[in-house]
């Protein structure tokens, strides 16, 4: 009893410090203008004050004022001038993912919030790994042009090591790749099935009519750089005996095929790509029954994007586009 009395007299009742800290955090959150986060999201996406203002339906001075308040909120410059635009600071990049995810989660729960492709000016960001970008990008853009005049797409062709966080924090809406993302919080939809084949020059001096695995290992190989995270070739060259046969590592399968057509090297590529270039490059195409030679193309997205009506529309558009492949 004595201890408690003393603590009361000193204003240190057990648990008061934690309650005071929690109350301080609550008050700090109440003072923060959370509407500023939508401005931050727009400026991060476009990295241009004028275009961000147009997207938000605000005046340029209003957006500039909001950015100044954001700087005070986060005690950081957030954006610095770079040429005609602005460049996010390291702190802004750090904040972007969590803020974008939080805004998306709130948006998903708002009742009556719709998406109309005929009037929307929304920009979607997706990544289509090489060489699938060559096959699908023209079809996706043609489909988008038919379905919406205002919606735009930002398409990358490189899958980064942080692809999961890019999708989780809505820096990207979708990824299309030959590999799925096997995580509990991700969805994967198979778009189509293809076949892995072996290509060589029709003028190759040694290859027999029927190529077997021993013959495969006796030849020199051209591959997409094996150290790249999204290397198409790596799954087939992850053993010392196959890596020992690699003589050329290119940036893409296009450069690999060009090299194969002019040398005695061989390479593994998707059948659709081999057929598309066989006549132009004078290529021979062979099956590879010693491999699991089925290739599956996947559309992947994070579960937090599943309630977004715009994302649902874009998902359907991507699926329809892939069905034309």
UniProtKB/TrEMBL annotation:
UniProt domain HTH lysR-type: residue ranges: 33-89
Organism: Rouxiella aceris
Pfam families: HTH_1, LysR_substrate
Family recorded in the similarity comment: Belongs to the LysR transcriptional regulatory family.
Single GO term (MF): DNA-binding transcription factor activity
Gene that produces this protein: leuO
Alphabetically ordered keywords of this record: DNA-binding, Transcription, Transcription regulation
Record protein name field: Transcriptional regulator LeuO
UniProt-annotated stretches for the region Disordered: 1-26
Top-level division of the source organism's lineage: Bacteria
């Amino acid at each position: 009893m004595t201890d408690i009395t003393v603590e009361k007299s000193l204003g240190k009742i057990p648990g008061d410090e934690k309650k005071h800290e929690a109350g301080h955090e609550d008050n700090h959150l109440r003072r923060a203008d959370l509407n500023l986060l939508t401005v931050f999201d727009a400026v991060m996406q476009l990295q241009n004050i004028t275009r961000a203002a147009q997207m938000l339906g605000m005046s340029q001075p209003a957006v500039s004022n909001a950015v100044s308040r954001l700087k005070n909120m986060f005690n950081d410059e957030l954006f610095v001038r770079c040429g005609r635009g602005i460049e996010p600071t390291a702190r802004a990049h750090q904040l972007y993912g969590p803020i974008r995810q939080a805004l998306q989660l709130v948006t998903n729960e708002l009742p009556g919030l719709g998406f109309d492709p005929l009037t929307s000016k929304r920009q979607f960001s997706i990544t289509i790994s090489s060489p699938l970008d060559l096959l699908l990008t023209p079809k996706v853009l043609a489909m988008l042009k038919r379905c919406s005049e205002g919606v735009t797409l930002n398409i990358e062709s490189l899958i980064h090591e942080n692809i999961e966080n890019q999708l989780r924090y809505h820096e990207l809406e979708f990824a299309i790749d030959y590999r799925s993302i096997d995580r509990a919080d991700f969805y994967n939809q198979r778009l189509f099935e293809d076949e892995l084949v072996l290509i060589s020059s029709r003028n190759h001096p040694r290859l027999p009519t029927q190529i077997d695995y021993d013959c495969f290992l006796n030849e020199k190989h051209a591959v997409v750089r094996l150290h790249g995270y999204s290397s198409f070739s790596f799954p087939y060259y992850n053993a010392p005996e196959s890596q020992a046969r690699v003589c050329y590592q290119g940036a893409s399968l296009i450069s690999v095929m060009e090299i194969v057509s002019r040398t005695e090297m061989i390479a593994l590529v998707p059948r659709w790509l081999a057929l598309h270039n066989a006549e132009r490059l004078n290529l021979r195409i062979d099956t590879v029954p010693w491999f699991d030679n089925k290739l599956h193309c996947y559309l992947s997205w994070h579960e937090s994007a599943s309630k977004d009506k715009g994302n649902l529309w874009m998902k359907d558009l991507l699926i329809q586009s892939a069905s034309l492949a």
